[in-house]
């Protein structure tokens, strides 16, 4: 209460809640309106907000420019500890300030364009495209952010205006591209060239952004610009070294015993993770498919799992789930997940831990479905170590091994592709070497025998 000049009392403004640590934020009640904290410029300047949800919170930024209030979602808060995509308080402050600078720049650019339309630079086009993609992705990982990292503000391609863009600008930029970070996330000592697959994904985003800008500014652009964009962002063919990398390094195959050891090790590390690895090993499905399984997708009496279709490709048509037969011992091991649960419940759940007490004190807080693929990173590393597998073994090796196992068993390529929700062309392109090498016994049955009898197995 505050005392007025006339002697009466009035309510004082509520004390702002502190949001700078996860412990303080955990005590805040959930509400739709963010808890705001000014970070620059005083009243009407840049503010950082924390919107508390039922389970976790997100950071939002706010700025008032010439009387107009603008808000933007920055990303999830690190309430559950450090993880990919989560922002700490200092990181959120920095993101809010950077975002506010871009908003001011947009307004100033608009003032300069009042006398006539202006054509943006390639960097400005990519920034606008990335912001739209991030809004649609609702804070999830977005490939356009990867493109921005390879197109800094001082890059020659980034500085060129769309009206002056040529395919040579793009070709010169591609020649200088290299990975800034190694597979371990640390800065690379020697920056290697990007693989053709990574390059084509960057070009897909660049093409989409430029085509949108060409359509928007078509009245101010020369007629040849669409052709320059098409030529410069064309899909690049795989180089020989890319194919050698796939065949010699990334295509990891595991024996059946190695897979069994990995499954048992996963259960010893974390039972929830063990069920996920069990399904990955027995079906060869992608993580994103397995995470979307429901209780009803486990058909106990038919000995199969209805695997949701992948979300790869451009088609928006929803495809029905594919029935994948599995052994009955796998079904039996999954049975505890089905007891007392509804058919539409997510099959696989995991604990979310929260930080309490000392620096090393973490306790189970609540359960939720598996989320982004980085959720399994630490559990997989522990599993590989516990199983005694090579330390560079990736979880995708379970899928590679499942595909090759089907091919060795003599299943038609079309059936193997259908069971693994992929195309025949992909199987033939990436697994042809293994088909020839690992099916020699099948081919030898049809070999010509000089003696006129059945084919004799060659000596090892």
From TrEMBL:
Q: Does the keyword Transferase apply?
A: no
Has keyword DNA-binding? yes
Q: Which Gene3D superfamilies match?
A: 1.10.150.130, Intergrase catalytic core
Chain ranges of the Tyr recombinase domain: 249-447
Superkingdom classification of source: Bacteria
What's the short name of a Pfam family annotated to this entry?
A: Phage_integrase
Which residues lie within the region annotated Disordered? 1-27
Q: Name one GO molecular function term.
A: DNA binding
Entry protein name: Phage integrase
